[in-house]
Amino acid sequence: MPVHTVSRIVSESDYKIWALIERYVNLALAQNDYSNLQAVGMDETSKRKGHDYITLFVDLLKKRTVFIAEGNDQKTVEAFANDLKTHNGSPEAVTDVSCDMWPAFIKGVKDNLPNAQITFDRFHIMKVINTAVDTVRKQEVQTQFVLKGTKYIFLKNEKNLTETQRQKRQELSMSRLNLKSIKALHIRENFQEIYKMPTPELFESMLRRWYFWATHSRIQPMIDAARTIKAHWEGVVQWRKSHIDNGLLEGLNS
């Protein structure tokens, strides 16, 4: 129920209602104990249209939001680390952080959470690769009109396609056009398979093979995406050890 509606029902000003809310929120926050906080997920979201960002920090083990900071730069991580200390927590005790590949987040973690290993979130990694696939399709549709109206065939996983989309994809795959978009799609699907590898050694071995294939594909957007993965290699490989991601945060942000 909106605060303004509550104020009308109880015949009090909006200001007083907000003051009461703030008081009880602060009392609740003061009781939080983060002494066992080890695995953290962090992600930015927009408060409103435009670029007015906040950064959320969640305890990935207990599945709870522990801190919200204004902005999306390295100072948000510094503010989080300082807040930890006021709740029996320790920045040095954080061993794992899941985040995207935003340089400010990476620097913030390295400067303020010295013992944390960064795992780059699968959702954001796939976003890089999906954007590359879509770029290939957009470029190719200019000369291959058969690709018109096929955007979601290339963005969806095969299991999520409608029957009509599945048939269209088969037609495109079997055509003699040798479409770059189909090759880019196969590169993406093979990347997804890497996450099914049972050991860190196999994970990294398959990632190396994938990188070689993608960078020799002669498809520039896929080459660029592969180079982005290479530049963040350790954090990508770290997933096979940590198995953490920002799925919880994506739910909160939506």
Topology:
Elements: H1 3-10, H2 14-30, E1 39-48, E2 52-59, E3 64-70, H3 74-85, E4 96-99, H4 103-112, E5 117-120, H5 122-140, H6 151-155, H7 163-174, H8 180-194, H9 200-215, H10 220-231, H11 233-237, H12 239-242, H13 247-253
Parallel strand pairs: 1-4, 4-5
Antiparallel strand pairs: 1-2, 2-3
Description:
- The protein is α/β, with parallel strands linked by helices and about 250 residues long.
- The protein folds into three domains: about 1-30; about 35-115, Nucleotidyltransferase, domain 5; about 120-240.
- Helix content is about 55%, strand content about 15%.
- It contains 13 helices and five strands.
- The protein has helices at about 5-10, 15-30, 75-85, 105-110, 120-140, 150-155, 165-175, 180-195, 200-215, 220-230, 235, 240, 245-254; strands spanning about 40-50, 50-60, 65-70, 95-100, 115-120.
- It has a five-stranded mixed sheet, with helices on both faces.
- Strand 1 and strand 2 form a beta hairpin.
- Helix 5 runs antiparallel to helix 10 (about 220-230).
- The longest helix has 19 residues, at about 120-140.
- The two termini are about 20 Å apart.
Keywords for this entry:
single chain, 254 residues, alpha/beta, Nucleotidyltransferase, domain 5, 3 domains, 5-stranded mixed sheet, 13 helices, 5 strands, globular
